[in-house]
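Following up on my earlier message about adenosine-5'-triphosphate. Here are the inputs again, as you asked, copied directly from the submission form:
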Amino acid sequence: MSRGTTQTLEIAVLPGDGIGREVMGACLQVLQAAQGLCGGPALRCTTYNAGAQYYAESGVALPDETLKACKESSAILFGAMGWPDIRHADGTEIIPQLDLRMELGLYAGVRPIRWFPGLPRVLTDERAKEIDFVLVREQTEGLFYARGRGRVENDEEAYDTMQITRTGSTRVTEFAFRLAEQRKARGKSSRVTCVDKANVFASMAFFRKVFDEVASRYPAIEKDHAYVDAMALTMVKKPWTLDVMVTENMFGDILSDLAAGLIGGMGMASSADIGDNHGLFQPAHGTAPDIAGQGKANPCAMLLSAAMMLEWLAFRHDEPQLATCGTLIEKAVEHALAAGGVVPMEYGGAAGTADMTKAVIDALPIALRALPQ
Ligand code: ATP
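Thanks, got it. Here's what our run produced:
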């Protein structure tokens, strides 16, 4: 396919720490190879400093230059940040990703979970092959509002306050319903589930009320509600029944790790942090200090996150070739795993980061031939 545009899009690349750096290296190789096959606008990927390691060297976790580049770029590719031994003076972790969410208004944490043929199944039920849902996590308020605001009184009592606003709840719920509409257009089921704890907390009852108001504007999309504890059970017992879920920040934080566990590990869990003006694409996993520096990380979550970026850019810039390129990467990951030649170490196989990267790059031309022309 030939390049049909002269547009160049700036991509801010923040590899971060630990395996974030390793999976980002893999991602940039795959992106280049995929774009070589698909064409579309050029992506100018520029790497910037941020994270715990950089903080240890410089005393700054998120330099102004990096933040400025993130604000000015078309999209942000993010590895992972944080390190157990490198902390702020008050003992808190270096997690600039939370600052970026607030600075750039990245209110929707989009966590798609689906089973890939070729992966060992965690759940023995045959229907586990049908797992295909998206968790949408509100990311700018909820219990995380308490970050930096919590207080301990007289060494006896501690308080962290949850914030739920109409604006925050409306925009993330709207996002979830629009996502369900897109899934419906692709022939998937289209139900949005509000995950809350409305039976106990006023804040959560309010979240549900706003959800219902938004839902009434989407009559073609089914809606329902679940308490977060019941949802944890449903996720394990019959996750194949789930479609799109929207939930509060802390609940989403916990449920997204549970969701990744359903498909065997963090290395397959992609994610996107989306706002009205910016998009940041990162694997759902952290820096994995236990395996960092050993070439063992599964890069697939990072690759699938880059595929999400391409799809998002395609829509925003009206560049369909970018969407094709995103689909190509997703299909190449699928093919590499399904072909059975590589099993990531995370799943007990022998394939490290370099093997997985090579397998995906080798699968790109095969995946391209299989794409509808
Ligand atoms: P954070 O709090 O930053 O999200 P975490 O400490 O909860 O991070 P991770 O860094 O995501 O957790 O790691 C959790 C477990 O999953 C670790 O055992 C790690 O080795 C494993 N893991 C995470 N990502 C990958 C990956 N891409 N490939 C293989 N194993 C991974």
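One observation from looking it over: The longest strand covers residues 8-16. Hope that helps, and feel free to reply on this thread.
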